[in-house]
Amino acid sequence: MKQPSEIKSPNILSVKKVLVISLMLCCIVIIASAFKQKINSPGIAIAVNIANDDSATSAQAFLQVYSVLMSPRCMNCHPAGNRPLQGDDNHIHTMNVQRGKDGKGLYALKCSNCHQAENTAGLHTPPGNPKWQLPPADMKMVFQGKSAHDLALQIMDYNRNGHKNKEQLLEHARDTLVKAGWNMGGDRTPPPLAYDDFVKAWDTWINNGGYAPPAK
Ligand code: HEC
Ligand code: HEC
User: Fold this and answer.
1) Which residues line ligand 1 (CB under 6 A)?
2) Of ligand 1's atoms, which has the minimum distance to the CA of residue 181?
3) pLDDT tens for residues 109-155?
4) Residue 216: pLDDT above 90?
5) How confident is the model at residue 51, as a pLDDT?
6) How many CA atoms lie within 13 A of 156 on its CB side?
7) 49-77 burial by CB neighbour count: b if 16+ within 10 A, else e?
């Protein structure tokens, strides 16, 4: 008569064991998932906020950059046509100066004939820089007439920005030809932002994702 109970008791024991173990497992799973949610949910919320803030911060910074790009000191070398522009009113460069294939002028009218390495003293004299030229004919980098949306997309586009990656784009704000925009001599109006503020806005724009402001 002892045999059945002897057989039974270990059975009951093992059922209890299984119950206890599964209960513990349940607890662990529940606690773990609760814990995970607690960690995750604010994390996800923050990530979403950052993404939104990033694109807004970036696009906002580009609007500042854009005000500089569209200023005569920059746009005069980024014309829609094949002739540079001049002056605060962006009139077409006198003397029929042309872009040429490489951007350095056509035939005898090379930019460097008149534009020296340094500014020429006086009013209405050619500004100077060793690299003075237009972008080449096969990569015109037009600013004139572009909306902020279109220009942001163009500059972030490797195939339209002179094959610049992110690092090279960041570097470009430090380019001497860009800096020249703040030192063109004569009575030429400087760009609307101070140079350092331009660089700051440029970096903010690109480091936060290089977003374009919405199309109007
Ligand atoms: C024959 C001489 C001559 C040649 C060649 C020449 N320039 Fe000029 N450029 C001038 C003079 C002079 C001025 C200043 C005009 C003024 O301020 O009234 C000037 C002004 C400019 C300006 C205006 C600067 C500003 O912000 O107002 C730009 C841009 C420019 N040149 C680009 C070029 C480019 C690019 C080339 C070559 C494709 C070139 N120039 C070839 C004489 C020349
Ligand atoms: C003397 C003419 C000249 C002036 C002035 C000039 N640029 Fe440029 N810019 C160029 C040339 C040439 C290139 C192409 C060479 C290169 O990519 O390094 C270029 C390229 C660029 C590019 C990259 C091309 C793109 O559209 O993606 C940017 C951005 C730029 N310039 C900004 C400026 C800003 C900002 C100013 C004014 C502060 C300025 N430039 C004034 C000649 C000029």
Assistant:
1) 72-73, 76-77, 84, 86-87, 93, 95, 97, 99, 105, 109, 111, 113-115, 124-127, 133-134, 184, 186, 188
2) 26
3) 999 999 999 999 999 999 999 999 999 999 999 999 999 999 999 99
4) no
5) 52
6) 20
7) eeeeeebebbbebbebbbebbbbbbbbbb
Q: What is the pTM of this model?
A: 0.82
Please report the pLDDT score of residue 207 as a whole number: 97
H, E, C per residue of 52-100? HHHHHHHHHHHHHHHHHHCCHHHHCCCCCCCCCEECCCCEECCCCCCCC
Q: For residue 123, which atom of ligand 1 is closest to its CA?
A: 17
Tell me the CA–centroid distance for residue 126 and ligand 1, in Å. 5
For residue 139, give both structure tokens: 């990569």
Q: Which of 36-45, 49-58, 195-204 has the lowest mean pLDDT?
A: 36-45
For residue 175, report the distance from its CA to the centre of ligand 2, in Å: 9
Pocket test for ligand 2, best of 178, 189, 199 (most atoms within 8 A of CB): 178
**Domain layout of the chain by residue ranges:** 62-207
5, HSE (Cβ side, Cα atoms, 13 Å): 2
Q: From the alpha carbon of 84, which atom of ligand 2 is closest?
A: 2
pLDDT in tens, 41-81: 343 333 344 456 899 999 999 999 999 999 999 999 999 99
Q: What is the residue-averaged pLDDT of the chain?
A: 86
Atom of ligand 1 lying closest to residue 83 CA: 38
